[in-house]
Design goal:
single chain, about 260 residues, Metallo-beta-lactamase, Chain A, seven-stranded mixed sheet, globular, binds zinc ion
Length: about 260
């Protein structure tokens, strides 16, 4: 399998996951132009993409969708609530509803030689999900935009070879920052975004011996710093009972506007 974070953060999200013959995008929250450029960097063209999976209807996950949908004919996978919300949005209203394929949490769909299983997440969107992607016994997960996690979340992320997990904000930076009170409450709430510390706690529960890459993703531009996210997550792992040494884990921060290295596993 192959995995690349094309863009990750509150200003736009797009992840490539593929096998030798099946190529998928998870969210298209950046322009078609930037998406095409990133794909070219790994030897692919938009016409190679076999499907787009949308996590939820927030603009940082669907900005590129109208133009991409107009220029290509791949299916767009999302939950019913997300499809309805996307079609209601002013920019995406022109997309032919027949382009969408409805998915449900914990009901895997097959695309080529990949299997994609949506997972429930807690976020202030219509019907948001994360995605687990499999080729045989290999597994990658994309899990961002969640205000809290449960045993279910940890169960879903276990055994990953590659994991992109939200590490959105530093709670102190958010609290002393200039965001209005209501927005702070929204981000901190159960349907908001995962803090660096919570991300580290969740990560501590899902580590395994075969994990090849851990991306900390969807960092807030205002309320986080990559080095702080990285250090906070490592401290949480150090103080957890996971038995793993944080400095030996392949943790990196997924960049806001630059593609990561292509991970092959
Ligand atoms: Zn969101
Ligand atoms: Zn988002």
């Amino acid at each position: 399998m192959r995995f690349e974070s094309i863009a990750s953060g509150s200003s736009g999200n797009c992840i490539y996951v593929g096998s030798d013959r099946t190529h998928l995008l998870m969210d298209v929250g950046i322009s078609r132009k930037r998406t095409v450029e990133a794909l070219r960097g790994i030897g692919l063209d938009m016409k190679d993409i076999d499907g787009i999976f949308i996590t939820h209807e927030h603009v940082d996950h669907i900005t590129g969708l109208p133009v991409i949908a107009r220029n290509s004919d791949m299916p767009i996978y999302a939950t019913k609530g997300t499809i309805d919300a996307v079609l209601r949005s002013s920019k995406c209203g022109n997309i032919d509803p027949a382009r969408f394929v409805c998915v449900r949490p914990d009901q895997p769909v097959t695309v080529g030689d990949l299997k994609v299983n949506p997972m429930r997440i807690s976020h202030d969107a219509a019907d948001p999900v994360g995605y687990r992607i499999y080729e045989g016994n290999k597994k990658a997960c994309v899990c961002t935009d969640l205000g809290c996690f449960t045993d279910y979340t940890a169960e879903c992320l276990k055994d990953s070879d590659v994991l992109l997990l939200e590490s959105n904000h530093d709670v102190n930076m958010l609290q002393v920052g200039h965001y209005p009170y209501m927005l702070k409450q929204r981000i901190l709430g159960d349907r908001g975004h995962l803090s660096n510390a919570s991300s580290g706690q969740l990560l501590s529960r899902v580590l395994n011996d075969h994990i090849r890459a851990i991306f900390l993703g969807h960092l807030s531009k205002e309320n986080n710093i990559p080095e702080l996210a990285f250090e906070t997550v490592r401290v949480e792992i150090m103080f957890s009972e996971s038995g793993y040494r944080a400095e030996e884990l392949p943790i990196q921060v997924a960049k806001r506007s630059e593609p990561s290295a292509l991970i092959e596993f």
